[in-house]
C-alpha cells in the first residue's frame, strides 16, 4: 500500500517505540535481580528514556532529510516545467538595407520589419510584419519609431492586436527633427491572434542602417 512520505517518520517512530518496549521488557528481566522494586523501576525507566531519546533523534534527522528531498524534488519539477514551456520570442528592425522614408500610404498599413535579429518559434512573419500567436498566454511587445526632417515630420504608428489599437507613438511637429519614441504593452493572446505595428495613413517613418525602428515581443508565460 502506498504511503505519504510525510507520514513516514511517524510510522518509523511507532515501530521504534515498539522496539523500545521490547528492549524495556528484556531490561526489566535484567533489573529484577538488581534490588528493590523501586530500583528496578528506576533502572527500566532510565533505559527506556535513553533508548527513546536516541531513536527520537534519529527520527528527527530522518524527517529533516525527507523534507530536504521533497524540496529538491519540487525544485526539479519546476525546472522541468520551465524547460517544457514553449520558447516564443522575436526582434526585428525595419530595414535590412538602404535608408530613407517608408510611406506615406493612402491607407493605414502594417510595417514590415525585415531585418530579423531573432525569431524563436517562427511566430513573426517578415513578409507581412505580423506576429501570430501559437500559444495561449501573456506576451510583452515593444516598438520604436523615428521620423526625419525632410519632408516636415508627420509620423504615427500604433501597436495593434487584430483590429484593436493598443498603444501609439506620434510626432507631427514641424519645429524639430529626428525625433524618436517608443511604446510597449503586456497583453493576453489566444492561438491565432495577430499583433503588428501599423503606420497610419498619409504618414511616414525614416530608417537606415542604425535600425531606429524596431519591433520585438516574447511570451512571458503560457496560460
UniProtKB/TrEMBL annotation:
Residue ranges of every copy of the C1q domain listed in the record: 83-223
InterPro entries hit by this protein: C1q_dom, Cerebellin_Synaptic_Org, Tumour_necrosis_fac-like_dom
**One Pfam family this chain carries?**
C1q
Where can this protein be found?
Secreted
Which coarse location class applies to the principal site listed for this UniProt protein?
A: secreted
| Signal peptide boundaries | 1-24
Xref: Gene3D superfamilies: 2.60.120.40
Q: Mind telling me what this protein is named?
A: C1q domain-containing protein
What species is this protein from?
Answer: Oryzias latipes
Amino acid at each position: 500500500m502506498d504511503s505519504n512520505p510525510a507520514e513516514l517518520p511517524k510510522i518509523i517512530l511507532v515501530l521504534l517505540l515498539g522496539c523500545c518496549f521490547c528492549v524495556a521488557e528484556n531490561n526489566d528481566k535484567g533489573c529484577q535481580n538488581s534490588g528493590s522494586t523501586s530500583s528496578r523501576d528506576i533502572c527500566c525507566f532510565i533505559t527506556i528514556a535513553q533508548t527513546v531519546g536516541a531513536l527520537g533523534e534519529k527520527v528527527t534527522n530522518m524527517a529533516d532529510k525527507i523534507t530536504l528531498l521533497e524540496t529538491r524534488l519540487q525544485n526539479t519539477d519546476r525546472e522541468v516545467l520551465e524547460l517544457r514551456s514553449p520558447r516564443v520570442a522575436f526582434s526585428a528592425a525595419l530595414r535590412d538595407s538602404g535608408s530613407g522614408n517608408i510611406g506615406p500610404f493612402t491607407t493605414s498599413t502594417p510595417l514590415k520589419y525585415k531585418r530579423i535579429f531573432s525569431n524563436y518559434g517562427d511566430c513573426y512573419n517578415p513578409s507581412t510584419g505580423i506576429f501570430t500567436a501559437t500559444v495561449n498566454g501573456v506576451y510583452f511587445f515593444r516598438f520604436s519609431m523615428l521620423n526625419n526632417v525632410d519632408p516636415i515630420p508627420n509620423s504615427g504608428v500604433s501597436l495593434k492586436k487584430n483590429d484593436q489599437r493598443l498603444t501609439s507613438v506620434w510626432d507631427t511637429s514641424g519645429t524639430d527633427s529626428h525625433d524618436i519614441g517608443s511604446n510597449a504593452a503586456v497583453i493576453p493572446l489566444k492561438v491565432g491572434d495577430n499583433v503588428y505595428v501599423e503606420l497610419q495613413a498619409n504618414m511616414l517613418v525614416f530608417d537606415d542602417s542604425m535600425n531606429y525602428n524596431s519591433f520585438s515581443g516574447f511570451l512571458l508565460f503560457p496560460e
